[in-house]
Design a protein that fits this description.
It is a single chain. By secondary structure, the protein is mostly helical. The protein has helices at 3-11, 16-34, 40-57, 66-85, 92-101, 117-129, 133-143, 149-156, 160-181. The protein contains 9 helices and no strands. The longest helix has 22 residues, at 160-181.
Length: 185
């Protein structure tokens, strides 16, 4: 089923929207969540919560890219669940990838200066689109999907040194771009 047809089902408040979403994007949502949470029951719960999140937000939202919209909901729910569980269990890959970003991206919402999330998100998206496709994809695999360096090496057929170098340089360029744009790091 096409994305537009699935979105139409949400607007009609048809429960079939959930079934169609699960059929088309269930594996994607599971993949996004599994890279953050390792316990299968937590993963299943977050996947179901992703469908509920879509149900509650469509309408009024009308996503342009349903896969990206669902991935964002899934990722945010998994990170919230991870934060809740982090006192008991830790996923070292998530902690490591987030700590790598600390030098160039802080939690702007908790700083004294408040930034518009949409403007910041748009800026980072523009920055990533200005990068070489390979660099952009490696950055996204690491910091959005929380893939390990080893998984990225395997996916792109690159050495560990090459992947680490690409990530380091991209983080450095992002930090410089954020500072140039006036974001206080």
């Amino acid at each position: 089923m096409k994305d537009e047809d699935i979105i139409k089902l949400y607007f009609e408040r048809s429960e079939r929207a959930i079934r169609e979403t699960e059929l088309k994007y269930g594996r994607l949502c599971t993949y996004v969540i599994k890279n953050i949470l390792k316990d299968s029951s937590d993963v299943d719960e977050c996947v179901n919560d992703t469908y509920l999140g879509a149900w509650n937000s469509i309408p009024p939202s009308h996503p342009d890219v349903l896969s990206a919209y669902l991935s964002k909901i899934a990722r945010n729910l998994a990170l919230k669940r991870y934060e809740y569980l982090s006192a008991h269990k830790r996923n070292p890959e998530v902690l490591l990838s987030l700590s790598e970003l600390e030098d160039c991206v802080t939690d702007f919402s908790s700083s004294d200066i408040r930034y518009n999330d949409t403007d910041l998100s748009d800026f980072i998206n523009r920055f990533l689109h200005s990068q070489k496709q390979e660099n952009r994809m490696i950055f996204i695999r690491r910091y959005w999907y929380h893939d390990s360096i080893k998984e990225i090496c395997k996916r792109y057929g690159l050495s560990k040194t090459k992947v680490e170098s690409i990530l380091f340089r991209t983080r450095k360029r992002l930090k410089a771009a954020l500072e140039e744009e006036g974001y206080e790091i």
